[in-house]
Amino acid sequence: MAMISYLKSCLIAAIWFVFLTFPLMVVKVNTLKNTVEWRWMNMLWVAIGAFILSAVWRWAMERRARGASQKEQESSDSDKKPSLGERLLEDPKLYRPLLGLVVALALLMPWVSEMYQVTIWVFALIYVVLGLGLNITVGLAGLLDLGYVAFFGVGAYTYAILNTRFGLDFWICLPIGGLTGALVGVLLGFPILRLRGDYLAIVTLGFGSIAKIVYENWEGVFNGARGIEKIARPGFFGMEMDISAATTFTYYLMLVMVVFTIFVTNRLKDSRIGRAWMALREDEIACVAMGVDMARTKLGAYALGAFWAGLVGVIFASQTTYINPASFDFMLSAIVLSMVVLGGMGSIVGVVIAALVLNLLPEYLRAFEDYRMLVFGAVMVLMMLFRPQGLVSNVRKTYTHSKKVHAEEANG
Amino acid sequence: MDYFLELFLSGLTRGSIYALIALGYTMVYGIIQLINFAHGEIYMIGAFVALVVSGVLTIYGFSGVSILILAALIAIIYSAAYGYTLEKIAYRPLRGAPRLSPLISAIGMSLFLQNYVLLAQTADFLPFPELVPEFEFMEPIAHIMGSAELIILITSAITMIGLTLLIKYTRIGKAMRATQQDMVMARLTGINVDRVISVTFIIGSVLAAIAGVLVGSYIGQINYFIGFMAGVKAFTAAVLGGIGNIPGAALGGLVLGLAEAMAAGYISSAYEDVFAFGVLVLILILRPSGLLGKAVKQKV
Amino acid sequence: MRKSVMKSFVVIALLSMIVPAVGFAADTIKIGVAGPHTGDLAPYGLPTKDAAMMLAEQVNAAGGVLGKQIEVVPMDDQCKPEIATSAATKLVSEGVDIVIGHVCSGATKAALGIYKESNIIAISPSATNPPLTQSGDYPNFYRTIAPDDDQGKLAASFATDKLGAKKIAILHDKGDYGKGFADFSQAAIEAGGKAKVVLFEGVTPGAMDYSAVVQKIRREGADAVIFGGYHPEASKLVGQMKKKRVNVPFIGPDGVKGDGFLEIAGDDAEGVYATGPMDVSALAGNKKAKDDYVAKFGKEPGTFFDQGYAAMQTILNAIKESGGTDSAGLEKALRGSYVDTAVGKIKFDAKGDAEGVGFSVFQVQDGKFVELK
Question: Helix, strand, or coil here: B283?
Answer without folding.
Answer: helix
